[in-house]
Specification:
By secondary structure, the protein is an alpha/beta fold. The chain has helices at about 5-15, 15-20, 25-40, 55-65, 75-85, 120, 125-140, 155-160, 170-180, 200-210, 230-235, 240-250, and strands at about 45-50, 70-75, 90-95, 110-115, 140-150, 180-185, 195-200, 215-220, 260-265. The chain has one domain (about 5-150, about 200-265): Rossmann fold (3-Layer(aba) Sandwich).
């Protein structure tokens, strides 16, 4: 196990991914992400690899609607949580601890791959290329890759909305990541990744192309919908929730305005 793998695992020991997706922000993100994933499933049912699947919110949903799902994550605790909750689901084909840089799956296995984590957890471009080339290897010809990245300006947007912009140490971290793309939270170690890479749109699309994918497009996951006052109250109101989802969908064509982006690659 290398140093970065250990850092990723330890960061999720501090930062509870399961709770994040149950938060108002997480619920909104998950609902619109499901909409985006559904729009890019070409074969029904599909064989889907959910690589970096967290605690399985998307894998369990995809299995329940009839797709054959292989779930994996690099964090053993995430995999254990998934096993305890979902191992009996009919369409869960495999569950395992996997490093996206070196997968155990056979060649040309999947119709669709979801990479929701690996492309922003790896600051080194060469390692992101390893992930993308592994995805290409295990994806069928004509298969679809949905790769999630974090926008270069996500940290600044959060710092402004939360008031952290006036915290000198936090602002220095944000300033560095805007200039370089590299988030270095090793000294602060507070409520976010210790290390990550935040992409510009042309960067993530270039990484796909140079790894052998044809880029269909990139979409924003939430736009500015996440940054509404009293989101915890609004998300419980069905009318307001629908309006926020409409905003997320309206802004999907402007991915750099979203904290998270989804790039769609085709294995030509």
């Amino acid at each position: 196990m290398n140093y970065l793998t250990t850092e990723i695992i330890e960061s999720y020991d501090r930062f509870n991914e399961d709770n994040r997706l149950k938060s108002p922000y997480g619920l909104l993100e998950e609902e619109h992400t499901r909409m985006l994933i559904t729009q890019h499933i070409v074969i029904n049912p599909s064989i889907i690899l959910d690589i970096g699947g967290g605690t399985g919110h998307y894998s369990s949903w995809l299995a329940e609607i009839g797709h054959k799902v292989h779930f994996s994550d690099i964090v053993p605790n995430h995999v254990q949580i998934f096993k305890e909750r979902y191992s009996n689901l009919k369409n869960i084909v495999s569950i395992g601890v996997e490093d996206a840089r070196s997968l155990s799956y056979q060649n040309e296995l999947a119709d669709l791959i979801i990479l929701n984590g690996p492309l922003y957890h790896l600051p080194d471009k060469s390692e992101r290329y390893m992930v993308l080339r592994e995805a290409k290897r295990v994806l069928k010809k004509g298969g679809v890759l949905l790769g999630f990245s974090i926008s270069r300006f996500a940290g600044l947007d959060y710092a402004l909305s939360s008031g952290e912009v006036f915290n000198d140490d936090y602002f220095q971290m944000v300033k560095d990541e805007i200039l370089t793309g590299y988030r270095n939270n090793l000294s602060l170690r507070n409520k976010t990744f210790t290390q990550a890479y935040f992409h510009l749109l042309n960067e993530i699309e270039t990484e796909f192309i140079e790894s052998g994918f044809k880029v269909k497009c990139s979409l924003g996951v939430l736009g500015q919908a996440w940054n509404t006052p009293n989101l915890d109250v609004a998300i419980k109101d069905s009318t307001k929730r629908e309006r926020l989802l409409q905003i997320a969908d309206l802004m999907k064509e402007y991915p750099m305005h979203s904290p998270k982006m989804m790039t769609i690659g085709i294995n030509d």
